Amino acid sequence: HKPSTLQWTLTPETLSLLSEMSNLDTTPAFSLTAPSTLDITLPHITLPHNIDLSSIQGVIHLNSLSMQERGGADTLNLGQLQRAFQQKNKGPLKFTLKGKSAPSGELNLQGTLHHLVDTQGNFSLNEISTDLDLEIRHFPTPFVDLFSRSFLQKDLQLTTLLGNVINATLKAQVEGCCG
User: Fold this and answer.
1) CA distances (Å), 152 to each of 28, 30, 58, 147, 148, in order?
2) CB 138 within 8 A of CB 104
3) In Å, how far are 10, 33, 41, 101, 131 from 65, measured between CA atoms?
4) CB within 8 Å of 51: residues ≥ 6 apart
5) Cα–Cα distance, 126 to 12 (Å, whole number)
6) Average pLDDT score, the chain
7) CA–CA separation, 86 vs 54, rounded Å?
8) For the chain, which has fewer Cβ within 10 Å, the N-terminal or C-terminal residue?
9) What is the C-alpha to C-alpha distance for residues 32 and 14, in angstroms, rounded to an integer?
């Protein structure tokens, strides 16, 4: 089988149009300063009548993302952002997220999700469990501010609390939404 691929270039104009189409009452917290290309690769995909997600894998890669906070002067650069996921034979879903930021930041997240579906085959948060390992080194805190304001629609100012960069290590285990 040949892999299925999708490539999409997000331009500042496209982001503006998507913001208008979303019917949100707020202006996006950031604007793109340059086009960004998103590549999605699914090595094997089938869509049977009853979709079975017992075996799935794929990679999502973002070559670079240059953003500027609305009303701000600084440009934030995120590059080589890659998300991979894999689930085989109804086993746990394994995932990674890796990224770099200019000038020297790194983000590494690895995790495993167990029991995505209950015994009847339905998605259930009550039975889900996860193992997470997260390491953030010299990562610009304004990225967290921008994304939290855009997606959570909250005016979080973590930069004020944490400073300009984040250095953190997190290990977590969550069982049945309790951790």
Assistant:
1) 11, 14, 26, 8, 5
2) yes
3) 9, 8, 19, 9, 28
4) none
5) 40
6) 77
7) 10
8) N
9) 10
Is residue 108 scored above 70 in pLDDT? Answer: yes
For tokens 């990225």, name the residue.
143
- Summarised one tens digit per residue, pLDDT across range 27-44 is 666 778 888 888 877 765
pLDDT class for 163, splitting at 50, 70, 90? confident
Contact 66, 34 (CB under 8 A): yes
Residue type for 136, please? I
Name the pairing type of β-strands 4-10 and 36-42: antiparallel
Is 143's pLDDT higher than 60? yes
Q: Read off the tokens for 156.
A: 């979080």
Give me the residues paired with residue 65 across strands: 78
Which residues, at least 6 apart from 13, have a Cβ–Cβ distance to it below 8 Å?
A: none
pLDDT at 44: 59
Task: For residue 134, give both structure tokens.
Answer: 């997260």
H, E, C per residue of the chain: CCCEEEEEEECHHHHHHHHHHCCCCCCCCEEECCCEEEEEEECCCCCCCCCCCCCEEEEEEEEEEEEEECCCCCEEEEEEEEEEEEECCCCCEEEEEEEEECCCEEEEEEEEEECCECCCCCECCCCCEEEEEEEEEEEEHHHHHHHHHHHCCCCCCHHHHHCCEEEEEEEEEEECCEC
